[in-house]
Amino acid sequence: MPVELVAVVAIAALVTAWLLWRFSRGTTTASGGHTSPNAAAEVEVRTEFPPEGLLVPEDVLRSVGSTSGAIWDALEAAAAPVAVEYYPVSEAEVAKFRTGPVNATAQQAMVGIVEALNPKSPTLFRVVLPKGAELVKAAGTSGFRGFSRSGGKTAHAVLKPVAAGGALVAGWPVLAVAGTVLAIDMVAQREQRAHQRRIEAILSRQEERAYVERITDQRSADAQLSRAISLMLDGGKPNLELALKSADDEFYRSQQFLEKHRGVIDELVDNDGKVDYRRLEETLGGKEKEVDQFIRELHLARAAIAMRRKALITYAASLALADPTNPYAALRRFVGSQVHQLEDADAVATELTERLTQVELKGRWRDSDKSVATRQERFRAQVSPPKIDGDTEIRYLMTSSGELLQVLPPAEDEPLQLAQDE
Questions:
Q1: pLDDT higher at 34 or 10
Q2: Which long-range CB contacts under 8 A does 109-115 form with residues at least 24 apart?
Q3: Beta strands in 232-331, from DSSP E residues, in sequence order
Q4: How many whole angstroms separate alpha carbon 221 and alpha carbon 242?
Q5: Residues 223 and 283 occupy one common structural domain
Protein backbone atom coordinates (compact mmCIF):
# COMPACT_ATOMS: atom_id res chain seq x y z
CA MET A 1 0.00 0.00 0.00
CA PRO A 2 1.50 3.43 -0.92
CA VAL A 3 2.63 5.52 2.05
CA GLU A 4 0.39 8.40 0.97
CA LEU A 5 -2.69 6.17 1.06
CA VAL A 6 -1.74 4.72 4.43
CA ALA A 7 -1.31 8.23 5.82
CA VAL A 8 -4.76 9.25 4.61
CA VAL A 9 -6.28 6.09 6.04
CA ALA A 10 -4.55 6.44 9.40
CA ILE A 11 -6.43 9.67 10.19
CA ALA A 12 -9.75 8.20 9.06
CA ALA A 13 -11.40 8.86 12.39
CA LEU A 14 -10.43 12.54 12.32
CA VAL A 15 -11.46 12.86 8.69
CA THR A 16 -14.81 11.44 9.74
CA ALA A 17 -15.18 14.46 12.01
CA TRP A 18 -15.06 16.60 8.92
CA LEU A 19 -17.52 14.25 7.22
CA LEU A 20 -19.84 14.64 10.21
CA TRP A 21 -19.60 18.41 9.85
CA ARG A 22 -20.28 18.22 6.12
CA PHE A 23 -23.12 15.76 6.63
CA SER A 24 -24.80 17.91 9.29
CA ARG A 25 -24.63 20.94 7.00
CA GLY A 26 -26.08 18.94 4.12
CA THR A 27 -29.16 17.95 6.13
CA THR A 28 -30.29 21.56 6.57
CA THR A 29 -32.42 23.29 3.96
CA ALA A 30 -32.13 26.61 2.21
CA SER A 31 -34.85 28.00 4.49
CA GLY A 32 -32.47 27.92 7.44
CA GLY A 33 -32.76 24.30 8.49
CA HIS A 34 -36.58 24.09 8.80
CA THR A 35 -38.38 21.18 7.18
CA SER A 36 -41.54 21.76 5.21
CA PRO A 37 -44.81 20.08 6.35
CA ASN A 38 -44.82 17.92 3.20
CA ALA A 39 -41.29 16.72 3.92
CA ALA A 40 -42.25 15.97 7.52
CA ALA A 41 -45.17 13.88 6.31
CA GLU A 42 -42.84 11.92 4.03
CA VAL A 43 -40.49 11.16 6.92
CA GLU A 44 -43.34 9.60 8.88
CA VAL A 45 -44.17 7.12 6.12
CA ARG A 46 -42.77 3.70 7.11
CA THR A 47 -40.76 1.93 4.43
CA GLU A 48 -41.08 -1.83 4.26
CA PHE A 49 -37.65 -3.49 4.23
CA PRO A 50 -36.81 -7.08 3.23
CA PRO A 51 -35.85 -9.47 6.07
CA GLU A 52 -32.19 -9.38 5.03
CA GLY A 53 -29.96 -7.11 3.00
CA LEU A 54 -27.14 -4.58 2.91
CA LEU A 55 -28.30 -1.13 4.03
CA VAL A 56 -26.55 1.50 1.90
CA PRO A 57 -27.18 5.27 1.96
CA GLU A 58 -29.68 5.96 -0.80
CA ASP A 59 -27.54 8.69 -2.38
CA VAL A 60 -24.78 6.07 -2.88
CA LEU A 61 -27.09 3.58 -4.56
CA ARG A 62 -28.68 6.29 -6.66
CA SER A 63 -25.30 7.34 -8.03
CA VAL A 64 -23.60 3.98 -8.65
CA GLY A 65 -26.19 1.20 -8.92
CA SER A 66 -25.99 -2.14 -7.13
CA THR A 67 -22.62 -3.71 -8.04
CA SER A 68 -20.50 -4.40 -4.96
CA GLY A 69 -17.29 -2.86 -6.32
CA ALA A 70 -19.01 0.38 -7.29
CA ILE A 71 -20.80 0.55 -3.93
CA TRP A 72 -17.50 0.09 -2.06
CA ASP A 73 -15.79 2.87 -4.03
CA ALA A 74 -18.73 5.21 -3.49
CA LEU A 75 -18.93 4.45 0.24
CA GLU A 76 -15.31 5.51 0.71
CA ALA A 77 -16.19 8.99 -0.50
CA ALA A 78 -19.72 9.18 0.94
CA ALA A 79 -20.83 11.72 3.54
CA ALA A 80 -21.82 8.73 5.70
CA PRO A 81 -18.94 6.27 5.02
CA VAL A 82 -20.69 3.20 6.40
CA ALA A 83 -23.16 0.47 5.46
CA VAL A 84 -24.91 -2.17 7.56
CA GLU A 85 -25.52 -5.83 6.74
CA TYR A 86 -28.46 -7.51 8.44
CA TYR A 87 -30.04 -10.96 8.32
CA PRO A 88 -32.11 -13.23 10.60
CA VAL A 89 -30.40 -15.80 12.82
CA SER A 90 -31.77 -18.81 14.67
CA GLU A 91 -31.97 -19.15 18.44
CA ALA A 92 -29.27 -21.84 18.19
CA GLU A 93 -26.93 -19.31 16.53
CA VAL A 94 -27.82 -16.66 19.10
CA ALA A 95 -26.83 -19.04 21.90
CA LYS A 96 -23.29 -19.27 20.49
CA PHE A 97 -22.62 -15.51 20.65
CA ARG A 98 -20.82 -13.74 23.45
CA THR A 99 -22.71 -10.50 23.97
CA GLY A 100 -22.59 -7.32 26.01
CA PRO A 101 -24.29 -3.93 26.18
CA VAL A 102 -24.07 -1.52 23.25
CA ASN A 103 -21.96 1.59 23.89
CA ALA A 104 -23.85 4.87 24.04
CA THR A 105 -22.26 6.23 20.85
CA ALA A 106 -23.57 3.39 18.67
CA GLN A 107 -26.83 2.91 20.61
CA GLN A 108 -28.82 5.70 19.00
CA ALA A 109 -27.87 4.78 15.43
CA MET A 110 -28.56 1.07 15.98
CA VAL A 111 -31.91 1.71 17.69
CA GLY A 112 -32.92 3.80 14.67
CA ILE A 113 -31.96 0.95 12.33
CA VAL A 114 -33.87 -1.64 14.35
CA GLU A 115 -36.98 0.56 14.53
CA ALA A 116 -36.89 1.18 10.77
CA LEU A 117 -36.36 -2.47 9.82
CA ASN A 118 -38.83 -3.77 12.44
CA PRO A 119 -37.46 -7.36 12.22
CA LYS A 120 -39.82 -10.17 13.23
CA SER A 121 -37.12 -12.55 14.49
CA PRO A 122 -33.60 -12.38 16.02
CA THR A 123 -31.41 -10.43 13.61
CA LEU A 124 -27.66 -9.96 13.30
CA PHE A 125 -26.23 -6.62 12.13
CA ARG A 126 -22.68 -6.18 10.82
CA VAL A 127 -21.20 -2.70 10.39
CA VAL A 128 -19.36 -2.22 7.09
CA LEU A 129 -16.56 0.36 7.17
CA PRO A 130 -14.56 0.86 3.96
CA LYS A 131 -12.16 3.29 5.61
CA GLY A 132 -11.94 1.06 8.67
CA ALA A 133 -11.10 -1.91 6.47
CA GLU A 134 -8.27 0.02 4.85
CA LEU A 135 -7.02 1.02 8.28
CA VAL A 136 -6.96 -2.54 9.58
CA LYS A 137 -5.05 -3.62 6.47
CA ALA A 138 -2.56 -0.85 7.18
CA ALA A 139 -2.04 -2.45 10.58
CA GLY A 140 -0.79 -5.59 8.87
CA THR A 141 -3.90 -7.75 8.75
CA SER A 142 -6.38 -8.90 6.16
CA GLY A 143 -9.11 -6.41 7.08
CA PHE A 144 -12.77 -6.82 7.88
CA ARG A 145 -14.64 -10.04 7.20
CA GLY A 146 -18.04 -9.91 5.49
CA PHE A 147 -18.86 -7.44 2.77
CA SER A 148 -16.04 -6.96 0.29
CA ARG A 149 -15.47 -5.80 -3.25
CA SER A 150 -16.57 -9.24 -4.42
CA GLY A 151 -19.94 -8.95 -2.68
CA GLY A 152 -21.40 -9.41 0.77
CA LYS A 153 -21.87 -13.12 1.42
CA THR A 154 -23.15 -14.79 4.57
CA ALA A 155 -23.95 -18.37 5.47
CA HIS A 156 -27.52 -17.53 4.49
CA ALA A 157 -27.29 -15.80 1.13
CA VAL A 158 -25.72 -13.09 -0.96
CA LEU A 159 -27.03 -9.88 0.59
CA LYS A 160 -28.65 -7.46 -1.82
CA PRO A 161 -28.21 -3.70 -1.41
CA VAL A 162 -31.15 -1.88 0.17
CA ALA A 163 -31.44 1.92 0.07
CA ALA A 164 -31.49 3.74 3.42
CA GLY A 165 -32.20 7.42 3.73
CA GLY A 166 -33.63 10.22 5.83
CA ALA A 167 -33.55 9.89 9.61
CA LEU A 168 -32.37 6.28 9.33
CA VAL A 169 -28.83 7.32 8.28
CA ALA A 170 -28.58 10.52 10.34
CA GLY A 171 -26.42 8.86 12.99
CA TRP A 172 -24.27 6.76 10.70
CA PRO A 173 -21.18 9.02 10.61
CA VAL A 174 -20.90 8.67 14.40
CA LEU A 175 -21.39 4.92 13.98
CA ALA A 176 -18.46 4.95 11.54
CA VAL A 177 -16.20 6.59 14.14
CA ALA A 178 -17.27 4.19 16.89
CA GLY A 179 -16.86 1.12 14.67
CA THR A 180 -13.43 2.17 13.45
CA VAL A 181 -12.13 2.76 16.97
CA LEU A 182 -13.51 -0.57 18.23
CA ALA A 183 -11.87 -2.44 15.34
CA ILE A 184 -8.51 -0.73 15.84
CA ASP A 185 -8.66 -1.51 19.56
CA MET A 186 -9.02 -5.23 18.82
CA VAL A 187 -6.52 -5.43 15.98
CA ALA A 188 -3.79 -3.36 17.65
CA GLN A 189 -3.99 -5.53 20.73
CA ARG A 190 -3.69 -8.72 18.65
CA GLU A 191 -0.65 -7.30 16.89
CA GLN A 192 1.05 -6.29 20.13
CA ARG A 193 0.35 -9.61 21.83
CA ALA A 194 1.71 -11.56 18.85
CA HIS A 195 5.04 -9.68 18.92
CA GLN A 196 5.27 -9.87 22.71
CA ARG A 197 4.77 -13.65 22.64
CA ARG A 198 7.69 -13.89 20.21
CA ILE A 199 9.84 -12.02 22.72
CA GLU A 200 8.79 -14.24 25.60
CA ALA A 201 9.66 -17.34 23.56
CA ILE A 202 13.35 -16.39 23.33
CA LEU A 203 13.96 -14.95 26.80
CA SER A 204 16.75 -16.31 28.95
CA ARG A 205 16.60 -16.19 32.75
CA GLN A 206 19.15 -13.36 32.88
CA GLU A 207 17.13 -11.16 30.54
CA GLU A 208 13.66 -12.08 31.74
CA ARG A 209 13.19 -9.33 34.32
CA ALA A 210 14.13 -6.43 32.03
CA TYR A 211 11.93 -7.56 29.16
CA VAL A 212 9.00 -8.50 31.37
CA GLU A 213 9.08 -4.90 32.58
CA ARG A 214 9.14 -3.59 29.00
CA ILE A 215 6.22 -5.81 27.99
CA THR A 216 4.33 -4.79 31.14
CA ASP A 217 4.83 -1.12 30.26
CA GLN A 218 3.41 -1.71 26.78
CA ARG A 219 0.43 -3.68 28.08
CA SER A 220 -0.22 -1.06 30.74
CA ALA A 221 -0.31 1.72 28.11
CA ASP A 222 -2.53 -0.40 25.87
CA ALA A 223 -4.95 -1.11 28.74
CA GLN A 224 -5.17 2.63 29.47
CA LEU A 225 -6.07 3.30 25.84
CA SER A 226 -8.68 0.53 25.80
CA ARG A 227 -10.34 1.88 28.94
CA ALA A 228 -10.32 5.38 27.46
CA ILE A 229 -12.00 4.04 24.32
CA SER A 230 -14.72 2.32 26.36
CA LEU A 231 -15.39 5.48 28.37
CA MET A 232 -15.33 7.68 25.26
CA LEU A 233 -17.81 5.51 23.37
CA ASP A 234 -20.13 5.58 26.39
CA GLY A 235 -20.30 9.36 26.18
CA GLY A 236 -17.56 10.19 28.69
CA LYS A 237 -14.59 12.48 28.24
CA PRO A 238 -11.53 10.50 29.33
CA ASN A 239 -8.21 12.17 30.01
CA LEU A 240 -5.96 10.72 27.32
CA GLU A 241 -2.76 12.53 28.28
CA LEU A 242 -1.18 9.73 30.32
CA ALA A 243 -2.11 6.99 27.84
CA LEU A 244 -0.85 9.06 24.89
CA LYS A 245 2.42 9.84 26.68
CA SER A 246 2.99 6.14 27.45
CA ALA A 247 2.38 5.23 23.81
CA ASP A 248 4.68 8.04 22.65
CA ASP A 249 7.48 6.98 25.02
CA GLU A 250 7.41 3.42 23.71
CA PHE A 251 7.26 4.63 20.11
CA TYR A 252 10.18 7.09 20.35
CA ARG A 253 12.36 4.52 22.10
CA SER A 254 11.68 2.06 19.27
CA GLN A 255 12.13 4.75 16.62
CA GLN A 256 15.72 5.28 17.77
CA PHE A 257 16.40 1.55 17.51
CA LEU A 258 14.97 1.40 13.97
CA GLU A 259 16.92 4.44 12.78
CA LYS A 260 20.13 2.94 14.13
CA HIS A 261 19.64 -0.23 12.08
CA ARG A 262 18.16 1.28 8.91
CA GLY A 263 19.93 -0.28 5.91
CA VAL A 264 22.22 -2.40 8.08
CA ILE A 265 21.94 -5.52 5.90
CA ASP A 266 22.98 -3.70 2.73
CA GLU A 267 26.30 -2.87 4.38
CA LEU A 268 27.02 -6.55 5.05
CA VAL A 269 26.19 -8.15 1.70
CA ASP A 270 29.26 -9.46 -0.14
CA ASN A 271 29.72 -9.64 -3.92
CA ASP A 272 28.11 -13.08 -4.00
CA GLY A 273 24.90 -11.64 -2.51
CA LYS A 274 25.39 -13.45 0.81
CA VAL A 275 26.20 -12.33 4.35
CA ASP A 276 28.79 -13.96 6.61
CA TYR A 277 26.81 -15.00 9.68
CA ARG A 278 29.67 -13.99 12.00
CA ARG A 279 29.65 -10.43 10.68
CA LEU A 280 25.86 -10.37 10.97
CA GLU A 281 25.94 -11.53 14.59
CA GLU A 282 28.58 -8.97 15.52
CA THR A 283 26.76 -6.13 13.75
CA LEU A 284 23.38 -6.92 15.28
CA GLY A 285 24.52 -8.17 18.67
CA GLY A 286 27.75 -6.32 19.37
CA LYS A 287 30.94 -7.96 20.60
CA GLU A 288 28.94 -10.41 22.69
CA LYS A 289 26.95 -11.32 19.55
CA GLU A 290 23.63 -10.97 21.41
CA VAL A 291 21.50 -11.37 18.32
CA ASP A 292 18.50 -12.46 20.39
CA GLN A 293 18.48 -9.04 22.04
CA PHE A 294 18.28 -7.37 18.62
CA ILE A 295 15.38 -9.66 17.64
CA ARG A 296 13.50 -8.82 20.84
CA GLU A 297 13.96 -5.09 20.25
CA LEU A 298 12.65 -5.48 16.69
CA HIS A 299 9.45 -7.15 17.92
CA LEU A 300 9.05 -4.53 20.65
CA ALA A 301 9.35 -1.85 17.97
CA ARG A 302 6.60 -3.43 15.88
CA ALA A 303 4.38 -3.65 18.97
CA ALA A 304 5.09 0.01 19.81
CA ILE A 305 4.11 1.07 16.27
CA ALA A 306 0.79 -0.78 16.59
CA MET A 307 0.12 0.96 19.91
CA ARG A 308 1.01 4.41 18.54
CA ARG A 309 -1.40 3.85 15.64
CA LYS A 310 -4.12 2.96 18.13
CA ALA A 311 -3.29 6.05 20.22
CA LEU A 312 -3.52 8.40 17.24
CA ILE A 313 -6.87 6.97 16.16
CA THR A 314 -8.21 7.16 19.72
CA TYR A 315 -7.14 10.80 20.01
CA ALA A 316 -8.64 11.70 16.66
CA ALA A 317 -11.91 9.91 17.44
CA SER A 318 -12.20 11.64 20.81
CA LEU A 319 -12.11 15.00 19.04
CA ALA A 320 -14.56 13.86 16.38
CA LEU A 321 -17.08 12.70 18.97
CA ALA A 322 -16.60 15.67 21.31
CA ASP A 323 -17.43 18.27 18.63
CA PRO A 324 -18.89 16.73 15.45
CA THR A 325 -19.50 20.13 13.84
CA ASN A 326 -15.82 21.18 13.97
CA PRO A 327 -13.82 20.44 10.78
CA TYR A 328 -10.50 20.59 12.74
CA ALA A 329 -8.60 21.92 9.71
CA ALA A 330 -5.44 22.98 11.61
CA LEU A 331 -5.40 19.93 13.86
CA ARG A 332 -5.75 17.60 10.90
CA ARG A 333 -2.47 18.99 9.54
CA PHE A 334 -0.74 18.38 12.88
CA VAL A 335 -2.10 14.83 13.14
CA GLY A 336 -1.05 14.30 9.53
CA SER A 337 2.56 15.11 10.49
CA GLN A 338 2.34 12.63 13.37
CA VAL A 339 1.01 10.01 10.99
CA HIS A 340 3.88 10.66 8.58
CA GLN A 341 6.34 10.07 11.43
CA LEU A 342 4.55 6.86 12.36
CA GLU A 343 4.46 5.52 8.82
CA ASP A 344 8.14 6.34 8.29
CA ALA A 345 8.99 4.18 11.31
CA ASP A 346 6.64 1.47 10.06
CA ALA A 347 8.32 1.54 6.64
CA VAL A 348 11.77 1.16 8.24
CA ALA A 349 10.56 -1.74 10.39
CA THR A 350 8.91 -3.42 7.40
CA GLU A 351 11.96 -3.02 5.16
CA LEU A 352 14.35 -4.20 7.87
CA THR A 353 12.18 -7.24 8.60
CA GLU A 354 11.93 -8.14 4.92
CA ARG A 355 15.68 -7.87 4.41
CA LEU A 356 16.36 -10.01 7.48
CA THR A 357 13.89 -12.72 6.48
CA GLN A 358 15.40 -12.91 2.99
CA VAL A 359 19.08 -12.77 3.94
CA GLU A 360 21.30 -15.54 2.53
CA LEU A 361 23.86 -16.56 5.13
CA LYS A 362 27.23 -18.15 4.54
CA GLY A 363 30.00 -19.48 6.75
CA ARG A 364 33.68 -20.17 6.37
CA TRP A 365 35.44 -23.22 4.97
CA ARG A 366 35.08 -25.19 8.22
CA ASP A 367 31.29 -24.56 8.49
CA SER A 368 29.18 -27.27 6.92
CA ASP A 369 26.39 -26.29 4.55
CA LYS A 370 23.89 -28.00 6.85
CA SER A 371 24.92 -26.02 9.93
CA VAL A 372 24.72 -22.73 8.02
CA ALA A 373 21.30 -23.66 6.61
CA THR A 374 20.03 -24.52 10.10
CA ARG A 375 21.33 -21.23 11.46
CA GLN A 376 19.68 -19.32 8.61
CA GLU A 377 16.33 -21.08 9.06
CA ARG A 378 16.30 -20.36 12.80
CA PHE A 379 17.25 -16.70 12.31
CA ARG A 380 14.59 -16.11 9.66
CA ALA A 381 11.91 -17.73 11.81
CA GLN A 382 12.76 -15.53 14.79
CA VAL A 383 12.69 -12.21 12.90
CA SER A 384 9.67 -12.99 10.70
CA PRO A 385 6.47 -11.13 11.62
CA PRO A 386 3.89 -13.27 13.42
CA LYS A 387 0.64 -14.12 11.68
CA ILE A 388 -2.21 -11.98 12.95
CA ASP A 389 -5.88 -12.84 12.59
CA GLY A 390 -7.57 -10.07 10.60
CA ASP A 391 -11.15 -11.27 11.04
CA THR A 392 -12.41 -8.18 12.83
CA GLU A 393 -16.14 -7.60 12.96
CA ILE A 394 -18.34 -4.99 14.58
CA ARG A 395 -21.64 -6.81 15.09
CA TYR A 396 -24.88 -6.19 16.94
CA LEU A 397 -27.72 -8.55 17.75
CA MET A 398 -31.43 -7.96 18.24
CA THR A 399 -32.81 -10.82 20.32
CA SER A 400 -36.30 -12.33 20.17
CA SER A 401 -37.28 -10.10 23.11
CA GLY A 402 -36.21 -6.98 21.18
CA GLU A 403 -33.08 -6.36 23.27
CA LEU A 404 -30.15 -4.83 21.37
CA LEU A 405 -26.70 -6.23 22.25
CA GLN A 406 -23.17 -6.02 20.89
CA VAL A 407 -21.60 -9.31 19.80
CA LEU A 408 -18.25 -9.56 21.57
CA PRO A 409 -15.06 -11.02 20.08
CA PRO A 410 -13.54 -14.23 21.47
CA ALA A 411 -12.31 -13.82 25.02
CA GLU A 412 -8.64 -13.67 23.98
CA ASP A 413 -9.36 -10.56 21.86
CA GLU A 414 -10.81 -8.52 24.72
CA PRO A 415 -8.67 -5.65 26.04
CA LEU A 416 -6.83 -6.75 29.17
CA GLN A 417 -7.46 -4.84 32.37
CA LEU A 418 -4.44 -3.09 33.83
CA ALA A 419 -4.58 -5.23 36.97
CA GLN A 420 -3.90 -8.31 34.88
CA ASP A 421 -0.69 -6.80 33.56
CA GLU A 422 0.78 -5.66 36.85
A1: 34
A2: 109/171, 109/172, 109/174, 109/175, 110/175, 110/396, 110/404, 111/404, 112/167, 112/168, 112/170, 112/171, 113/55, 113/84, 113/86, 113/168, 114/398, 114/402, 114/404
A3: 275-276
A4: 8
A5: yes
pTM: 0.74
Domain membership of residue 54 (yes or no) is: yes
Q: Pairing state of beta strands 53-57 and 161-164?
A: parallel
Are the beta carbons of 300 and 254 closer than 8 angstroms?
yes
Taking residues 72-101, report their average pLDDT: 82
Number of H helices, E strands in the chain: 16, 9
Instruction: Please write the tens of the pLDDT for every residue from 389-416.
Output: 655 678 999 999 999 999 987 765 444 4
Are 142 and 246 part of one and the same domain?
no
* CA separation for the pair 177, 229 (Å, rounded): 11
Of residues 323, 375, 386, 334, the one with CA closest to residue 141: 386
Q: Evaluate whether residue 181 is within a structural domain.
A: no
The answer as to whether 186 is a domain residue is no
Structure confidence by residue, pLDDT tens digits, 293-315: 899 999 999 999 989 988 888 88
CA–CA gap between residue 276 and residue 361 (Å, rounded) = 6
Helix (H, G, I), strand (E, B) or coil at 171: coil
Return d(Cα 123, Cα 156) in angstroms, integer: 12
> DSSP letter at 121?
S
- 357 within a domain of the structure (yes/no): yes
Whether residue 365 sits in one domain with residue 258: yes
Same structural domain, 153 and 211: no
Q: Are strands 404-407 and 361-362 parallel, antiparallel or unpaired?
A: unpaired
Q: In this structure, are residues 53 and 159 in contact, taking their beta carbons and an 8 Å threshold?
A: yes
